[in-house]
Design a protein that fits this description.
By secondary structure, the chain is α+β, with helices and mostly antiparallel strands. Helices cover 48% and strands 13% of the residues. The protein has 2 domains: 190 residues, Orthogonal Bundle (Arc Repressor Mutant, subunit A); 64 residues, Alpha-Beta Plaits. Strand 2 and strand 3 form a beta hairpin.
Amino acid sequence: MTERGAGASPKPQDLLFALGGALVLEHLDEPVPTRVFLEVLGNLGVGQAATRATLTRLTERGFLARSQEGRVVSYALTASSRRLLEEGRDRVRAEAPFHQESSDWTLLSFSLPEAHRDVRHRLRSRLAWVGFGCVRDGLWMAPGQVPLDRVLTLPVTDESVQIDGFVVRPAPGTDVGRLVRRAWDLDALRREHEAFIARWEGPPARDLDPVAAYTLLGAHWIRLLRQDPVLPQVHLGEDWPAARSAAVHRSASEALEPSARAAFTELMAWARTLR
């Protein structure tokens, strides 16, 4: 579980990623003027300084490419960020994103020296994104068979770095439920689902313009996908709210997407006139 609780406001970076995956991918041949980002995030309560700083940081990290024509600064997705967003889009739009069919579990053990503290942090974040929970220091587990090729790709060649992964089935007598409760805070995860449902169930709120609302929906949904490891139903109980969350997301997306796409196209056209 992440450090932020249910209902927490998304960070500017989360909003930019959500906007990128939801709408910017449709404009791949057209850099997005800074003014567009300022407008959308401004409608979500993010100040201009924070938005500009986040754009700069994402450019430095290779997610965005900066260009300038006259006085207008624009940003385009890089090849790596397009690939990342396209991969994430499949999960965002999945019909049953929280349904686990496999009875297998993936175990991952790693040992990283203190000199690679930054790599350790990135690895833990990546593990959480693909569904792993920490059983004990250095030992993580995830439901199903998780492809480890992307997880295990780290920018280090130090022989002291040891990472091993296995796909296993529990031996008879193993209390898998106890391991699940140790690796994941199920009460906190339930609260995340309930907060999402409370925010997005029913008719779309009228306090936000369509682009801002669709971006916020995407940011909330991505956060929920990141936090939910897709555990087998047997460890969750019949009243687990994940299926309802998925239904609420589908309904909210269908209600917001057409007007958001049209409004974003208009916003891009308006920004191009500010030369």
